[in-house]
Specification:
Layout (H helix, E strand, L loop, with lengths): L7 H4 L1 H4 L5 H10 L1 E5 L5 H11 L3 E5 L24 H12 L4 E5 L8 H5 L4 E4 L4 H14 L3 E7 L2 E7 L7 H4 L9 H4 L5 H18 L8 E6 L4 E6 L24 E2 L2 H10 L4 E5 L3 H6 L5 E2 L5 H4 L8 E6 L3 H12 L5 E6 L2
Parallel strand pairs: 1-2, 1-4, 2-3, 4-5, 9-13, 10-11, 10-12, 12-13
Antiparallel strand pairs: 5-6, 6-7, 7-8
Helix pairs in contact: 4-10
Length: about 350
């Protein structure tokens, strides 16, 4: 006898028609319990699609409230929701979307104290958070409890998707054994459509895992650039040294190589008195440079390691970006390479 309630067969009929899904697959979706960490940019499309697809139980954990700046990309919410709890608001809207799905909101921050208790209730975790600390926490608890989890991240025009700890596959620590805090959407921006693109990929991986069909992104990192329409898949393996859960949580910090900051006034003074012995380098992406810049040459941060040898030690090298994070990383890369000249970083000009 089918486990689907009256009306569910018709609701999911177009999905059940797929031979890879069928009635058995739909019943697996109904039996699945999925926790979504973060009800923001990535969480919104993930939640909408897994709820619409018929995942039986969906948990939502998010301590934040809806803000006006969320609305261009978190389209589960509207202006009337500003100031309300994301987890509770999302649960109300999703319950209206599909009455056959049990929705449980957790309007709290995921912490070391509550993570294991919450995560162990679910079969699959989908992480849509925007910080390294939460990602490492999700990874370590999932490894300890033997739970697979779907990862996604977005920034500017680029998004990433992968699946960790699936069928003894690689974990997040295998791909990112160390973390250096970088830009986030609040500082660097994000195109509104990108979380929808990446979020639907994440939901797709969750549905495949729940149904046991298709090829899962385990051991593979999918990278999508919405500006160029370029897609890449990078393969990685499970590493014995980094997979076990560490005794202490990772320390998230910037590289400790000391480099000097320079203000706009200081730069103007130096460039005005000795312009031939100073080189200004914009380490933002080319589209950011083209939109607005202070001059100099444009070398994106990702390309700095390839051109280190081209910097002259007879010149003062000044890296700059919008916030200062990327420019500081560029200066640190130069300093670590053994560069004997002077390297500076700047941001917020």
């Amino acid at each position: 006898m089918s486990k689907l309630e009256g009306g569910e067969r018709k609701r999911y009929s177009r999905q059940i028609l797929l031979p890879e899904i069928g009635l058995a697959g739909q019943e697996k979706l109904k039996a699945a319990r999925v926790l979504v960490v973060g009800a923001g940019g990535l969480g919104c499309p993930v939640l909408q699609y897994i709820t619409a697809a018929g995942i039986g139980e969906v948990g939502i954990i998010d301590h934040d409230v809806v803000e006006v700046t969320n609305l261009h990309r978190q389209i589960l919410y509207n202006p009337g929701d500003v100031g309300k709890s994301k987890a509770i608001t999302a649960a109300e809207k999703l319950s209206a979307l599909n009455e056959f799905v049990k929705i449980t909101p957790y309007p709290v921050r995921l912490t070391e104290e509550n993570a294991a208790e919450i995560i162990r209730k679910y079969d699959l975790i989908i992480d849509g958070s925007d910080n390294f600390e939460t990602r490492y926490l999700v990874n370590d608890i999932c490894v300890a409890l033997g739970k697979p989890w779907v990862f996604g991240s977005i920034l500017r025009f680029e998004g990433q998707v992968s699946v960790f700890n699936y069928d003894n596959g690689p974990t997040y620590r295998c791909l990112f054994p160390d973390a250096e805090e970088g830009d986030n959407c609040a500082e660097a921006g994000v195109i509104g459509i990108l979380p929808g693109m990446i979020g639907t990929y994440m939901a797709n991986e969750a549905i495949k895992i729940a149904c046991g069909v298709g090829k899962v992104l385990s051991g593979e990192l999918l990278v999508i650039n919405a500006l160029s329409n370029a897609t890449s898949v990078f393969k990685f393996n499970r590493t014995v040294a980094t997979s076990p859960v560490p005794a202490t949580k990772p320390e998230i910090k910037e590289a400790d190589t000391e480099v000097m900051e320079i203000s706009w006034e200081e730069y103007e003074k130096v460039s005005g008195t000795d312009p031939e012995h100073i080189q200004l380098v914009d380490v933002r992406e080319d589209y950011e440079y083209e939109a607005d810049n202070f001059g100099g040459v444009n070398i994106p941060l990702s390309e700095i390691p390839d051109v280190i040898s081209s910097f002259s030690p007879d010149q003062k090298i000044v890296f700059y970006c919008q916030s200062g994070k990327r420019s500081k990383q560029a200066a640190q890369l130069l300093a670590k390479s053994g560069f004997v000249g002077e390297a500076y970083w700047a941001g917020g000009w």
